[in-house]
Amino acid sequence: MAQLVFSSWGREIVDNRRGGDGVTEIFQKKLPVTFDGERSMAAFMGWDGLIISDPDVDVVAMAAEYAKRVQEDYCCARCSPGKKGTRVLQDTLARIVSGQGQEQDLAEIEALAGLLENCKCTLCMTSAVPVLDTVKYYREDYLAYIRGERRAKPAEYKVKLTAPCQDKCPAHIDIPAYIEAIKDSRFDESLAVIRESMPLPAVCGRVCPHPCETACRRKNVDSAINIMVLKRTAADYERQHGRTPPMQPKARKGKTVAVVGAGPAGLATAYYLALEGYPVTIYEALPEGFGGGMVAVGIPAYRMPRPILQRDIDIISAMGVEIIYNTRVGSDISLTELKQKYDAVLLAPGAHRSKPMGVEGEDAGYQGFLAGGIDFLREAYMGKPTGMGKKVCVVGGGNTAIDCVRVALREGAEDSILLYRRTRNEMPADVWEVDGADEEGVQFQFLVLPKKIVVDDNRQVTGVECVRMELGEPDDSGRRRPQPVEGSEFIVECDTLIPAIGQDPELNFITGESGIEITRWNTVVTKFVPQKNAAGRDLNDDMGNPLSRILMTDMDGVFASGDAEIGPLTVVACVGNGHRAAKVIQRWFEEGEAYLTDDDFHEDILSHLGVYDPNEQVAWLDAVARFDQHEIHGRERAAKGNYSEVELGLSDSEAVKEAERCLRCYRVSMIAV
Amino acid sequence: MVSLTIDGKQVSVPAETTILEAAREVGIAIPTLCWLQKVSPTGACRICAVEIEGIDRTMTACNTPVKEGIVVATQSENLTRIRKQIMELILVNHPLDCPVCDAGGECDLQDTCYALEVNRQEFAAEDVNPPTIDHWPLIQQVPNRCILCEKCVKVCYEVIGADSLYINAKGDRAFIDKHLDRCVFCGNCVAVCPTGTMISKPFKFKARPWALRKVPSVCTSCGSHCQIDLNVQGDRVLRVTSDDEGTTNNGTLCTGGFFGYGYINSSQRLQAPLCDGQPVSWDEALGQVTTAIEEVLAKAGPAAIAGLSSPRLTNEENYLFQKLFRVAIGSNNIDSEARYGALRALEALDDVLGLRGASNLIGSIGTAEAVLVFGADPTAEAPAVDWKIQEATRRRDGKLVVANMRQINLQHYADSFLNYRPGSEIELANALCRLLLDKGLADEDYLNLSVGNLDELKSHLAGVDLAQAVAATGIELEQLEEAAEYLGTAATVALVFGADISKSARGVEKAAAMANLAILCGALRGEAGGLFPLDEKGNMQGLLDMGVYPEGLPGYQSYADDAEKFGAAWNAQLPNGGLDADGILQGIEAGRIDFLYLAATNPLSFPNAGRWRKALEQVDCLVVQDILPTEVTKLAKVVLPGASFAEKGGSVTSLDQQVRTLEAAIRPPGEAREDWDILADLYARLTGTPLTLGRAAVLAEVGGLSGLYGDICFVGGEGNRTCLKQPFRPAAQQFKYRPVSGADSGAGLQLLSGKSLFHFGTTTTWAPSQCELVPEGRIAMHPQDAAAARLKDGESVKLSSASGTAYGKLQLSRTVPEGLLFAPYHFTGQGISHLLPDGSNRTAVTVSKA
User: Using CA atoms, how far apart are residues A561 and A584, in angstroms rounded to an integer?
Assistant: First the structure.
């Protein structure tokens, strides 16, 4: 298998050029051995050094090309050392490669690298890192060029601009660019950047769990940039100023697409295909006014006001997307029919079926035992009777469970109680959601596990028998495993019990004869390009799916995305996945083949590598603390019937100041294949 | 306050202060190149790098806020090396054309290199700069001189709001490019450019900066009165500049201020007095005028003599004008174009609020929490007001409500755009008033305190029919409610209204509706915000202050009540009665007026210009005092060449009541004379009193009699020091709500006349720069209307109304709604004003191919 020749990644030097078999963890585990399943990764050059696995790689030529691409393709020119310095760097390296170099040029490269440390952002600054490493560790190669003993051979390089936040964002939004635009008070421009990868900006500006913020380098100085709320600022600005979105779809094309489900994945796929000119028809099981999938019926209106969600949907529709409501694929129209009627079909039905809790009596049809959290939220959202009483227990620790207890208050519950088998620290729900529930008066019972539903003679729920838990050893997820305390059974009184422990996709509409394979986690299997690391292990994403998926199912022309493909995850993951599906479908239409591009592979490689380094020492003055959005406080915000938005965003000027905290951590990655 | 140490000095500054500003507090100058106070810090040049203890890299002082306890070093060997090397990088491929560069001698790059002793170049690179951009009108861009400091981009976007300039391309190929269609040609990019990258074509190669004489002056293109320096050589104004520091306009100018000066140097300027079209001596010309006046006096008496004055003249000149007529001639038949606009606003505001002009300084708009722009296009009518509106709303989170029948530039930044139907202004204002009151958004305590007829206010508003208002204005109720919410929840509100209100047929009532609305939304409450009636003409406020209208005397004293007092002071018996502009027009038509004196005014720009034209042809003796030849000077028996603002001394009063002085920067061309001198000469000839009325004496008399300018520090010497008239401090229950109602919608295709962004009155039609941008008045028409009439963009059309006809080229535009055309009036030869009925800015028209 692949051998490490040289690595300076992370300032850890491993040099096997004169023998030896030193390895690094990055090389062994994080990087694949091939770029695209076929061509091998010969060298990787980036912000933190270089990794060489092919001894024949011309490191000097690669550095020269790297500097050229940084200057000509990526340097924003918005600071003097960056604009001019990388040009001088490029020309100096080009001079050397063309045989016109002198030894003192090497000193100049070093001087330039030093000057680039004064750049405004980190793009040009970090581009000097690998170049300087080549000068330092491949000096002989440079001297060979300078002495005229070497000529550059043609080589193929793949280059990609990234940033820790952008890499971490499942939709890979160009976060530094949209924040930079807000710095300049250019809210329209910011939104345009966001829309390149995110067609639901008002949604993801509000309800995104913002994994990007966990990979924000500003965190290494003080605290992360409020990336999500800055997105909301850009989206709200357009709406509040009554501006018309500027996007114009391309001329209509002939091939048509059907999408199953008007959720984030379906909407994203539809949006990007519609922009390309392909007419898209979305089939949505719920009635008009309830589009949006889990964003609508799974996220309560106090987090995601309906008119604002609807505006994002309407904008997508305006690009040439028809949404047919009240039509459930499987019962109202079959998949086969869709396949016949349209040139391509995308399956994005989401995950709307509550998981069973495994407690005694849950199948007995008791009064007051509700089918599941997600069903409760949907009924409440649609203004239907929920069957809820006055004393409500919700079981679970995720965001859906939290949504349920908070909605229960707004539906008029006198007591809203959350039962969770671990402690607050282990809750998968977002901290701010848990805090929000706390503020609204939700009662928490931690370290309890429901065992049995208690009912009266009328089969009406009167309580739930629970057992107390204690935390044992950590499990696979790293969280300590809860264990029952024997003999600790007790009853929590309630008239309503809502299980909210997870959802699965409902895939009954995919019949056996379609040939579409379903995983044991009830997700749709799609084609992928297998990638292995140097240690021989398959590279997977965080959900355990193969890293580089093409998103076409086993049935030709039928694609899948969203929760039903990934497994239940987040809006932003579904959007990212849906966007890729759109690109693949377009290729399939236009080139007759569903495949991933170099850019897709590069994106996947970087996301597996991880661009963010939590241990990096970031030198910066922490003069300005993070701006958090305004919020309505007090229990009144959760009064019966009060679904007014709780979080209020930032003012424009606060947003600008928050954006000014951004360190604009662009990095350029280059792979020799 | 935050305390820190800079170069060993302790300094304590407010939070959010930058290190650069903190250093300046203690007299430490950190070098900068891209920093510009009036825009957000850019951090592009990196020259202001400083070291902070404990931070393992340099930080830029311009955009790093202070932090408690930090220890900053602004000088070190390392910093010197970094700054020098960055300068060397900036200079890579910078051309050595300093000798022929327009910035030579005033180049920040030169100065910074010199200061940092940058005297060698270690770096070299291929020159990939794009070629010079020459195809933009008025402005040339030389990319290889550019240091990409972004000052131009930022001033264009942040201050002007045009969003025209941007950085194009990547890396060293990057250059400043322009969305030409968005450019308002304000020239601020040229003004802020630290090098010779952005160049004014009209100024290019005209003079070296050090050879120019800078004369402090006031731009009188509009009523904003930006403080400027006339850059002159000999008797020519070669450019106009403005300092960022110490001026109320922060150095910002509009296209009129920056490029509009060209008319001053026009070869067409009137250089000698004319009698019947022939050049004559001043003595002969003034003798003829005197004789003509005396003949009419003898034949028909003073009532047969009339005069129209101008907001182009100074306060002193207007004062002299009215005194000449009232004392030397004995006629009170004096008026001006204010009759068709500013006087209506004055009447209404004085009546309802006791206010004569704006209630506050322009600067106070910038701190208002909400701004309502009603029937005005501040970008065209008073650009400095526009900049402050943008400051309030774009920099300080204020809400902007724009109510207009067509789209204006500011609408782009509006939180609420109330696109009302023509003529429904009163109904819209009343609906907003009612909503403010109904929703409890009006400050009841304030209303109790300030309004004398609160019961009448409430009963009138109770009768306002919101459904009817929705139908009349075409605006949804939710939108009205949202706008009311913005205005009602703001602690401070600025209300700006303009020509669409005051120049319309029911201008007085509409202006009263604005005054009512100002009361309800609390615009008159405090230091921030205020009520701002706009009039596009430079010294309109001064003209009104000086009482150049038959109903009033200087200082808004009533002619009917105070004529005796003034007569005593002037040693004369003032005439009874007096005709206004309409009366004068009728008088000429009826043969009752035999002599008309036009001082720097052109009635062919007045509504129903065709009627005026006939009258001017008809009047026995027409005397025109002006600076450029017009159709009116051609009709005149005697033409008296006056002076432009650059050629005369005197004071002018801005729309926000600030009095500033002009000093003659150059001499008037040929034999032309300062206007006050001409008027004083005539006064002397007619009264037989030798001329002793110098400027100082006029000022003293104005001060004594007007009561307005008494404590103003009129000065010579120091130049254009700004002085404020008395601030507006209404007494308790001074406000008198005036119930107004009804619409004047008008049937059929309507044409609205107004101000162009690029022209200022009629004078700039002689300014080459403005004419390069807009050589003729284009008629804006909605594409749907054009399609219905089978007309195309750019097509020459004939417009006809009940009053007259006009010609022009069409410009298809969605800035006007269907059913409404918009045409600028400046090019009098085009005849737009001929279309308008008496005293109105709007008319029904038919359009056909010319």
Answer: 11
